[in-house]
């Protein structure tokens, strides 16, 4: 198994070599796939593209159901800064929802397929109540805190009405931040936005009808728009974020992915985690 994994890692690394485009006129490409949990490598890559004078414009391809609030907001701000200096075409894949849509909004022009699932403008905070299970197992939990909200929400007891009201204020404030940021970069009126900002999913066609996107089309249409907007025509594509891990780091991750218990330690999730998802 170890030999096989080493071979796979080196084979993938070799295939990703590609041509070095530094110093050549080109379009930058930002690829975001899957849940948003850590924005660092994407923010760094967008900063590189923003500061590189040889990058004429940027194509951002998003296929994500959303994710954690903080990283989603980091991606939004990185997109704002990028779109201030270069044309940014956003191509939405199968899903570009919630935190994914949050990231997309600052783009210069947003494209989605007619059947793309987007929107889902809302906030979710979930808590698993383990109280009855703990009682069945005969396990008691004691929490000594410096204030009445310090252990809220707790999975080991029922939520009080006061705690629920407190947590709802957090969720509503995060939702307000989401809609305020959309209005800051999209040509939508608040009344229209509030009608769809209840967590509902929109198809690409529905999103176009309410102004949540700019045009129907896929990655090819987005790239064609970018070529016209920049006046540069066809240029090489420089995709990222680049994988800067060494072979050992890639191997360690590959091994972790095949271990029977991989990923099980985070099933309960952090006690405090809100999601644009």
Automatic annotation (TrEMBL):
<keyword id="KW-0720">Serine protease</keyword>
<dbReference type="InterPro" id="IPR004635">
    <property type="entry name" value="Pept_S49_SppA"/>
</dbReference>
<comment type="similarity">
    <text>Belongs to the peptidase S49 family.</text>
</comment>
<feature type="domain" description="Peptidase S49">
    <location>
        <begin position="83"/>
        <end position="229"/>
    </location>
</feature>
<dbReference type="InterPro" id="IPR029045">
    <property type="entry name" value="ClpP/crotonase-like_dom_sf"/>
</dbReference>
<protein>
    <submittedName>
        <fullName>Putative signal peptide peptidase SppA</fullName>
    </submittedName>
</protein>
<keyword id="KW-0378">Hydrolase</keyword>
<dbReference type="InterPro" id="IPR047272">
    <property type="entry name" value="S49_SppA_C"/>
</dbReference>
<dbReference type="GO" id="GO:0008236">
    <property type="term" value="F:serine-type peptidase activity"/>
</dbReference>
<dbReference type="Pfam" id="PF01343">
    <property type="entry name" value="Peptidase_S49"/>
</dbReference>
<dbReference type="InterPro" id="IPR002142">
    <property type="entry name" value="Peptidase_S49"/>
</dbReference>
<keyword id="KW-0645">Protease</keyword>
<dbReference type="GO" id="GO:0006508">
    <property type="term" value="P:proteolysis"/>
</dbReference>
């Amino acid at each position: 198994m170890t030999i096989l994994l080493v071979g796979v890692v080196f084979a993938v690394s070799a295939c990703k070599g590609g041509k070095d485009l530094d110093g050549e006129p080109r379009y930058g490409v930002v690829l975001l796939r899957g849940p948003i949990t850590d924005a660092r490598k994407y923010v760094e890559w967008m900063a590189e593209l923003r500061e590189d004078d040889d990058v004429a414009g940027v194509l951002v391809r998003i296929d994500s159901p959303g994710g954690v609030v903080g990283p989603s907001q980091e991606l939004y701000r990185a997109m704002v800064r990028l779109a201030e200096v270069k044309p940014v075409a956003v191509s939405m894949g199968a899903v570009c929802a919630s935190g994914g849509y949050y990231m997309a909004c600052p783009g210069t022009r947003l494209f989605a397929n007619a059947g793309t699932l987007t929107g889902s403008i809302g906030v979710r905070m979930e808590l698993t109540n383990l109280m009855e299970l703990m009682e069945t197992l005969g396990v008691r939990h004691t929490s000594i805190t410096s204030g009445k909200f310090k252990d809220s929400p707790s999975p080991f007891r029922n939520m009080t009405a006061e705690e629920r009201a407190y947590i709802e204020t957090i969720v509503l404030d995060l939702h307000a931040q989401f809609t305020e940021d959309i209005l800051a970069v999209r040509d939508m009126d608040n009344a229209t936005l509030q009608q769809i900002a209840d967590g509902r999913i929109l198809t690409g066609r529905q999103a176009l009808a309410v102004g949540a996107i700019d045009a129907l089309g896929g990655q090819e249409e987005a790239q064609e728009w970018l070529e016209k907007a920049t006046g540069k025509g066809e240029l090489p594509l420089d995709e990222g974020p680049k994988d800067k891990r060494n072979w050992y780091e890639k191997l360690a991750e590959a091994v972790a992915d095949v271990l029977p218990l991989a990923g099980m330690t985070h099933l309960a999730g952090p006690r405090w985690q809100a999601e644009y998802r």
